[in-house]
């Protein structure tokens, strides 16, 4: 404390936000928007939203609300709705605006456009037309979840939303369950337990993390094995926006039969060294040992 009884720290002062009024170059700007806290938007995103000639959005009402929060006037600018159900109807107007040398800012409802959101077709069509596409990085639920999870981030796989039908969801889990990576999924809060139960059937001890309401007031992160989280999540599910992450798959015991079957599948199509290297990587085994088995099989075959 200072001599006058007040804290000796630097007094907090409001920072004046100076949003640029400089016109951006003609391009399609993919604007990342907050996933919870409205203050998680970047200054560059506000600049482009303030000056772009045309504003496009998955839901124009949500974008309008975001503009109001940050005091950005519409000033009579055109707003275009672009989502999965009207993309073909809305695309010509956007391409025409870009072709006329105008700038277009596109925002999804929350997070980074094209990440489990509509817009990738728009970016592809704009690029194929020889026009410019720019990304304005910012909030992303997938990356926010990965950041707080404590799971390995050197290699990760984003698998989007799980299918709603139980049979399709099971096949979807099987499609990524053996991938050597941290898996990031979006899930309905009511179906979180069902997803965990499917994974638990094959890998009950796999590490998992549930992120709920990221960046919002009631943010919560649950960590444990899949079997532990199954018991923790109520039958009726959770509330709020959910990101589920799974650590690398459990190490499985590899028998000699499994090893020889994997090598036999490859030896007829590639050199011994390459086949041994691929199988060693797949089963996380010493390459020298796998190479010795592969040589033995090659001699037996000849």
TrEMBL record:
InterPro entries: 4pyrrol_Mease, 4pyrrol_Methylase_sf, 4pyrrole_Mease_sub1, 4pyrrole_Mease_sub2, rRNA_ssu_MeTfrase_I, RsmI_HTH. Residues 28-229 form the Tetrapyrrole methylase domain. It holds the Pfam family TP_methylase. Its EC number is 2.1.1.198. It comes from the Bacteria. Signal peptide: none annotated. GO terms for molecular function: methyltransferase activity. The keyword Protein biosynthesis does not apply. Catalyzes the 2'-O-methylation of the ribose of cytidine 1402 (C1402) in 16S rRNA. Belongs to the methyltransferase superfamily. RsmI family. This is Ribosomal RNA small subunit methyltransferase I. The lineage of its organism: Bacteria, Pseudomonadati, Pseudomonadota, Alphaproteobacteria, Rhodobacterales. The gene is rsmI.
């Amino acid at each position: 404390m200072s001599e006058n009884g007040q804290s000796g720290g630097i007094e907090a002062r409001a920072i004046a936000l100076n949003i640029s009024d400089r016109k951006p170059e003609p391009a399609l700007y993919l604007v990342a928007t907050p996933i919870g806290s409205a203050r998680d938007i970047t200054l560059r995103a506000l600049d482009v939203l303030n000056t772009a000639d045309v504003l496009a959005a998955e839901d124009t009402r949500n974008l309008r609300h975001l503009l109001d929060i940050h005091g950005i006037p519409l000033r009579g600018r055109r707003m275009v709705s672009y989502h999965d159900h009207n993309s073909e109807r809305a695309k010509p107007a956007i391409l025409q605006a870009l072709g006329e040398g105008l700038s277009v800012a596109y925002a999804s409802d929350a997070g980074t456009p094209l990440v489990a959101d509509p817009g990738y077709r728009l970016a592809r069509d704009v690029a194929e037309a020889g026009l410019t596409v720019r990304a304005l990085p910012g909030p992303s639920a997938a990356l926010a979840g990965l950041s707080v999870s404590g799971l390995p981030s050197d290699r990760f796989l984003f698998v989007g939303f799980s299918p709603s039908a139980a049979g399709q969801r099971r096949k979807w889990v099987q499609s990524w369950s053996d991938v050597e990576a941290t898996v990031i999924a979006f899930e309905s809060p009511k179906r979180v337990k069902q997803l965990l139960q499917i994974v638990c059937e094959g890998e009950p001890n796999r590490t998992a993390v549930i992120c709920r309401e990221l960046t919002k007031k009631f943010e919560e992160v649950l960590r444990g094995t899949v079997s532990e989280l199954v018991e923790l999540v109520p039958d009726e599910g959770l509330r709020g926006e959910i990101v589920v992450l799974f650590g690398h798959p459990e190490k499985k015991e590899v028998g000699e039969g499994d090893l020889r079957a994997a090598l036999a599948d490859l030896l007829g199509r590639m050199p011994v060294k390459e086949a041994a290297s691929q199988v060693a990587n797949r089963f996380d085994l010493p390459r020298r040992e796998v190479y010795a088995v592969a040589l033995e099989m090659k001699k037996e075959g000849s």
